[in-house]
């Protein structure tokens, strides 16, 4: 069980996602708290076309947490969709 301050810390990281740039959010895809990873992925979806594909591919490795792998797959899918529609990255 996590301590109360750990939950607060995760909550702060999760809540801060609305006010930052994609390059500041992307490292949170490797956060140990799955809720933070999911929130980071949601925050990055509008910017998927501009994210570094190699870094997302690296997050698909089996040694990564499941939340990170799932987030990377969703962002890669969004990136592919954006590219097929002719949208460019940031």
Describe the structure.
There is one protein chain. This protein is an all-alpha fold. The protein has 5 helices and no strands. It has helices spanning 4-15, 22-25, 34-44, 53-58, 66-84. The chain is globular. The chain starts with a helix and ends in a 6-residue tail after the last helix.
Record field, number of beta strands: 0
On the 0 to 100 scale, the average pLDDT is 84
Regions with pLDDT < 50 over 5+ consecutive residues? Answer: 1-5
Structural class: mainly alpha
The N- to C-terminal Cα distance equals: 40 Å
Number of contiguous helices: 5
Helix content: 55-70%
SSE order, one letter for each helix or strand: HHHHH
Largest pleated sheet: none
Shape: globular
The Rg value, from CA coordinates, equals 13 Å
Strand content: under 5%
What's this, in brief?
The protein has helices at residues 4-15, 22-25, 34-44, 53-58, 66-84.
Secondary structure layout plus pairing:
Blueprint: H1 4-15, H2 22-25, H3 34-44, H4 53-58, H5 66-84
Helix pairs in contact: 1-3, 3-5
